[in-house]
Amino acid sequence: MTSEIKVNTIKKNSGSTITIGEGGDTVTITPGITAASLTSGTVPNARLSAVPNSSLANSAITINGSAVSLGGSVTVGETKPTISSISPTVITNDATNVTINGSNFISVPIVEAINSTGAITAANSITFTSASQLVANFTLATDGTYFIRIENNDGNAVRSGSALLTVSDVPAWTTAAGSLGEVGAGGTINFTVAATDATSYAITSGALPGGGSLNSSTGAITGTETGSSSTTTYNFTITATDAQGQTAARAFSITVSHGIANSMAFYNNGTF
Length: 272
What we know:
Blueprint: H1 45-48, E1 60-63, E2 66-69, E3 82-87, E4 90-91, E5 96-103, E6 110-115, E7 120-122, E8 125-130, E9 133-138, E10 144-151, E11 157-159, E12 165-167, E13 172-173, E14 178-184, E15 188-192, E16 195-196, E17 198-206, E18 212-214, E19 220-224, E20 232-242, E21 247-257
Parallel strand pairs: 4-12, 14-21
Antiparallel strand pairs: 1-2, 3-5, 5-9, 6-7, 6-10, 8-9, 10-11, 10-12, 13-16, 15-19, 17-20, 18-19, 20-21
């Protein structure tokens, strides 16, 4: 048979010992913990789980200058810069400004370009625009692709996950600017323009003689002249583009000539 006694307080009659039950009895007492009971003595860890943080003398600790409640969490670590994009993504070997977008930049960081061989080139100059934007001026003598690395003055650094910057020469014209030559009226048009590293050609201003067309892949200008009624010089500009989208333009001309065969010359006296 089980008996249950519920009381609020048990006080000793005398001495310093309270005896509950008799020898051989098992007595279970569910302990209660109060803030006052923690001021002295030893309390098993298992009992502390019932004590709210608010009851403790210090309910929070400070980590890296931030107060963190007991039982709470905080991310402990260093703030590293990030790189999200750059512009332009393709430059020549000449000194060029490159805008770098990202986050957590600190004035003024170290900025470097690292090519596929591991060679490192520091930026000529760095302009700190904001914590999310820098402008770095690079002179990169070797064509290729480059990773971008940024190191803040607190030692935190980042390298782009991929090669963001390409260094490439613009197409170089091997055909001299100016006149490509002359073709007779109704005659065959056959000229070719060329630029190193060009992958395409396009007429970006002016026009070819009637009947002529430009091959966008080879730079050949061919056709049979039509439409002119007198000697005419046709001026036009051709733009060469390479695989990286870099361009170079050059001005040319072709003259269509009309001869005097079967024509009549008139003199001032009206004779011919």
